[in-house]
């Protein structure tokens, strides 16, 4: 093989794949993005790069940011390659690669978040966007309200000038902007949350109110938080992904693989302007909620249908789960009978057609998306993705047998062992509590549903609780495969 080309500004002309054709030295920042993971670089950063390739949006470049110590590793890797990223599209039939350059810097990771606050206080920054995971918004799982008692929130309320959280840093920057006579930036969540803009607003305004009610009122009056629906599967980077980059002749320490599909639907509600993302394929819509519901319920909840069964049976990837005849049949039945009935059509797509699309995307063997990644943070993902569907099914007096089985599989998975006896490593912020409860639930299944911060009053639904207890007992007694076969035969 020829010598690998290091991914740097100075070597872009040597690349044999598509690369930035714009002068990156002339880009000016307009966006700070907090939480620079693979999804952001395959999605939001790509849409902006496409505009820049057309000579547009050169004053909207991205400054990366993070608020956790583990963000420092990504910062180091990206800065070493001038914040360039190789995106590798994995179609079942072929691979294609391109280098994108819409990110031009990565702010220091600091305990006080001083550099992040200073950057967001600059009026040239007109959007602060986030991908901080579904569980990162300090939401009380039971009430869906703001979790003011969380230690991070208590810290930021007591020390607003040296905040610990991304939201505290945003508030500190907004205070500087207001005091200097500048307007606010737009807060743009790109996480998989129903009404993610409204949730971001709840977190920011509620936290600000704890230390500065006047500032909270100014934020509520002048700042905007558009809802958005985001979609592109971008697995974690490991040795396989690094090897794929080398196959294209590149030395990239942080390449991103992704499926040949992207979707971004955004509410057009930006208080300080925005790029013309629609000219790169995004959709601006007043009805983001319908798109969100379809995607979160069929794709994100569908991921949870697969992942816990896959973990219990030692199946490593989502595509392998789809290749397993029982797990794929479970997926199809739950989707058709209990998830799709709660979803309305959107322009150009029925729920049934979307289920078929997701089936195809999940089955792509080139996308090495692990069951472990998908099963991560089940305490947030089940409460956010699955339980609202279950409640709607109960209200409509329709079956919840399949959803109860999915919850039972999660309860069994949280016991911490696969059916072959191997250990499942901690995979949830509340893993210790979940594991203790899961082990009690082996003999007393109702103990799992008694976790009110997760299930609220659902434990009092006899239809759900009876089905859940039946499935969990069967899983423990006869195993996952027998239980799924029993469900499929019902």
Radius of gyration based on Cα positions: 23 Å
Using the coordinates shown, work out and report the CATH topology of the largest domain: Rossmann fold
What proportion of the residues is helical, as a percent range? Answer: 40-55%
Tally of contiguous helical segments: 21
DSSP summary, beta strand count: 13
Low-confidence parts lasting 5 or more residues at pLDDT below 50?
A: none
CATH superfamily of the largest domain: NAD(P)-binding Rossmann-like Domain
**Count of folded domains:** 2
Distance between the termini: 56 Å
Main beta sheet: 5 strands, parallel
Strand content: 5-15%
CATH architecture of the largest domain: 3-Layer(aba) Sandwich
Q: What's the CATH class of the largest domain, please?
A: Alpha Beta
Class computed from helices, strands and strand pairing: alpha/beta
* Largest sheet, spatial ordering of strands: 6-3-2-7-8
Shape: globular
Strand and helix map with partners:
Blueprint: E1 5-6, E2 29-34, H1 38-42, H2 44-53, E3 61-65, H3 71-79, E4 85-90, E5 95-100, E6 103-106, H4 114-121, E7 127-130, H5 151-158, H6 166-179, E8 186-189, H7 196-211, H8 213-222, E9 228-231, H9 239-247, E10 250-251, E11 256-258, E12 263-266, E13 283-284, H10 288-312, H11 318-323, H12 325-339, H13 351-362, H14 371-375, H15 378-395, H16 401-413, H17 431-441, H18 446-449, H19 452-455, H20 462-478, H21 480-489
Parallel strand pairs: 1-10, 2-3, 2-7, 3-6, 4-11, 7-8, 12-13
Antiparallel strand pairs: 4-5, 9-12
Helix pairs in contact: 4-6, 5-7, 6-7, 7-8, 10-12, 10-13, 10-15, 10-16, 12-21, 15-16, 16-20, 20-21
Organism: Shimia thalassica
GO molecular function: mannitol 2-dehydrogenase activity
Domain Mannitol dehydrogenase C-terminal: 287-468
């Amino acid at each position: 093989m020829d010598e690998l080309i290091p991914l740097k500004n100075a070597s872009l002309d040597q690349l044999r794949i598509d690369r930035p054709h714009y002068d990156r030295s002339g880009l000016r920042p307009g966006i700070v993005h907090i939480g620079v993971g693979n999804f952001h670089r395959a999605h939001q950063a790509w849409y902006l790069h496409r505009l820049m390739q057309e000579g547009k949006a050169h004053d909207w470049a991205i400054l990366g940011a993070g608020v956790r110590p583990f963000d420092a590793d990504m910062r180091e890797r990206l800065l070493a390659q001038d914040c360039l990223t190789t995106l590798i599209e994995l179609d079942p039939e072929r691979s294609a690669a391109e280098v994108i350059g819409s990110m031009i810097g990565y702010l220091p990771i600091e305990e006080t978040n001083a550099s992040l606050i200073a950057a967001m206080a600059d009026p040239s920054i007109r959007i602060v966007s986030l991908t901080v995971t579904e569980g990162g918004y300090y939401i009380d799982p039971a009430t869906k309200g703001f979790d003011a008692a969380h230690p991070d929130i208590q810290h930021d309320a007591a020390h607003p000038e040296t905040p610990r959280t991304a939201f505290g840093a945003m508030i500190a920057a907004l205070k500087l902007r207001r005091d200097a006579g500048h307007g606010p930036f737009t807060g743009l969540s790109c996480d998989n949350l129903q009404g993610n803009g409204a949730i971001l607003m709840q977190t920011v305004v509620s936290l600000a109110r704890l230390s500065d009610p006047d500032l909270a009122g100014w934020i509520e009056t002048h700042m905007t938080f558009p809802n958005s629906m985001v979609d592109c599967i971008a697995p974690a980077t490991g040795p396989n992904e690094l090897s794929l980059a080398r196959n294209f002749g590149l030395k990239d320490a942080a390449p991103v693989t992704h499926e040949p599909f992207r979707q971004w639907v955004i509410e057009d509600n930006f208080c300080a302007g925005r790029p013309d993302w629609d000219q790169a394929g995004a959709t601006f819509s007043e009805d983001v909620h319908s798109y969100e519901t379809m995607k979160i319920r069929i794709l994100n909840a569908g991921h949870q249908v697969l992942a816990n069964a896959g973990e219990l049976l030692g199946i490593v990837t989502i595509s392998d789960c789809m290749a397993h005849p029982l797990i794929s049949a479970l997926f199809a039945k739950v989707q058709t009978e209990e998830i799709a009935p709660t979803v309305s059509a959107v322009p150009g797509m029925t729920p049934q057609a979307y289920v078929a699309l997701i089936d195809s995307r999940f089955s792509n063997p080139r996308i090495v998306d692990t069951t472990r990644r998908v099963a991560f943070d089940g305490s947030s993902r089940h409460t956010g993705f699955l339980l609202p569907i279950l409640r709607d099914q109960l209200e409509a007096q329709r079956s919840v047998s399949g959803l109860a089985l999915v919850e039972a599989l999660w309860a069994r998975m949280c016991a911490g062992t696969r059916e072959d006896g191997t250990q499942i490593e901690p995979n949830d912020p509340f893993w210790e509590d979940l594991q203790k409860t899961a082990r009690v639930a082996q003999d007393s299944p109702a103990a799992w549903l008694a976790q009110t911060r997760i299930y609220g009053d659902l434990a009092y639904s006899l239809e759900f609780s009876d089905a859940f207890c039946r499935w969990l007992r069967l899983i423990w007694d006869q195993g996952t495969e027998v239980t799924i076969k029993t469900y499929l035969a019902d």
